[in-house]
């Protein structure tokens, strides 16, 4: 987003010293009073700015708290997050996403909160969302797709999260079917997709992403500590949450645009590249039987394809999978 304020920050950050009000007003083609007003807004967003008479302005430090504005300044997207709403605290960004959808907000609207009081996980589980420790965000999408293709959007989102981790670390993220992001067998992120559809058309999707970023081990609830982790625990370093959100949104937009143009094939390939235990043998229990199977990949409808020892293949929609050593049950 090339707003005046973003250009202002770019100019100040490029200069190591002071930039005069006149210089800023000339470069941005705005009045000196407008420059001064922008400076006050920046301070409200947490920038520390020094103003010295006859010298000009200098940024001393950038905010560590995130805000809608600061998130948008470094955002390199065309449509995703161009409407971005940030809250300090909400019950669940999913709920807000649904409200915004019914108010007619556009495709690509993003809701982010520092903390959630009632974060929702899949299968009516709670999602622990402590303040400032992770990414709690919902994306409103209005895809021109039939409802049966909605699971593809969840699989796509999972590949985006895996690509983000791979881009920023030398860790080996994996996706456990259908859409848990694992690092070293532990879950660091989950996706909750909720859809409103009519007839043969998706009206909208609220795609919720929960990512544990800067929790230390003792900040992960004890009952899930054996199977959950955070980017910080796995990488051994603190993450910049704002930049991480921006990277996810950039990668999401690129991946989504290619998917709309070219279809599901590339997403399927990427998902299978990251797929946890793909090509390996696991034990599967369904209502009818328990069997050994090799996981082969995913199907366009989001099912997991598995092959038994006699070569018979089966599509799984819901099954208990015994993921084996280090893993945990679906
Ligand atoms: C899962 O169970 O793996 C999915 C977790 C999804 C959590 C995210 S956090 C942002 C959004 N708001 C919610 O209440 N849930 C999703």
TrEMBL record:
GO terms for molecular function: ATP binding; biotin--[biotin carboxyl-carrier protein] ligase activity; DNA binding; transferase activity. PROSITE patterns: BPL_LPL_CATALYTIC. The keyword Transcription applies. Biotin binds at residues 116, 120-122, 187. The keyword Repressor applies. Residues 21-40 bind DNA. One of its GO terms (cellular component) is cytoplasm. It is an enzyme of class 6 (ligase). Its EC number is 6.3.4.15. Residues 85-260 form the BPL/LPL catalytic domain. It catalyses: biotin + L-lysyl-[protein] + ATP = N(6)-biotinyl-L-lysyl-[protein] + AMP + diphosphate + H(+). Keywords: ATP-binding, Biotin, DNA-binding, Ligase, Nucleotide-binding, Repressor, Transcription, Transcription regulation. GO terms for biological process: protein lipoylation; regulation of DNA-templated transcription. Pfam families: BPL_C, BPL_LplA_LipB, HTH_11. NCBIfam families: birA_ligase. HAMAP family: Bifunct_BirA. Belongs to the biotin--protein ligase family. Acts both as a biotin--[acetyl-CoA-carboxylase] ligase and a repressor. This is Bifunctional ligase/repressor BirA. It comes from Halobacillus halophilus (strain ATCC 35676 / DSM 2266 / JCM 20832 / KCTC 3685 / LMG 17431 / NBRC 102448 / NCIMB 2269) (Sporosarcina halophila).
């Amino acid at each position: 987003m090339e707003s005046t304020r973003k250009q202002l920050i770019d100019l100040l950050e490029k200069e190591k010293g002071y930039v005069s009000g006149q210089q800023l007003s000339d470069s941005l083609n705005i009045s000196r009073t407008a420059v001064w007003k922008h400076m006050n807004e920046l301070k409200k967003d947490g920038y520390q700015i020094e103003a010295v008479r006859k010298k000009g302005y200098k940024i001393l430090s950038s905010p560590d708290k995130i805000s809608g504005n600061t998130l948008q300044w470094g955002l390199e997207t065309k449509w995703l997050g161009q409407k971005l709403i940030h809250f300090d605290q909400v019950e669940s960004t999913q709920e807000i996403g649904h409200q915004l959808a019914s108010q007619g907000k556009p495709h690509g609207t993003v809701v982010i909160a520092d903390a959630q009081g009632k974060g929702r996980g899949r299968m009516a589980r709670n999602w622990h969302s402590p303040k400032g420790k992770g990414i709690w965000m919902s994306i409103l999408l209005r895809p021109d797709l039939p409802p049966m293709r909605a699971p593809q959007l969840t699989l796509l989102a999972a590949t985006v999260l895996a690509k983000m981790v791979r881009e920023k670390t030398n860790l080996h993220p994996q996706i456990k079917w259908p859409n848990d992001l694992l690092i070293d067998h532990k879950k660091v992120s989950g996706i909750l997709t909720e859809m409103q559809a009519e007839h043969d058309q998706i009206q909208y999707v609220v795609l919720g992403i929960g990512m544990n970023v800067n929790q230390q081990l003792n900040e992960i609830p004890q009952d899930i500590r054996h199977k959950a982790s955070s980017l910080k625990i796995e990488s051994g370093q603190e993450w910049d949450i704002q930049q991480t959100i921006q990277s996810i949104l950039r990668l999401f937009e690129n991946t989504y645009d290619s998917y709309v143009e070219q279809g599901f094939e590339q997403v399927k390939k990427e998902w299978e590249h990251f797929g946890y235990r793909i090509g390996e043998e696991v034990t599967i229990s369904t209502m009818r039987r328990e069997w050994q199977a090799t996981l082969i990949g995913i199907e366009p409808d989001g099912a997991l394809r598995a092959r038994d020892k006699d070569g018979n293949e089966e599509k799984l929609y819901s099954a208990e999978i015994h993921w084996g050593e280090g893993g945990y049950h679906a």
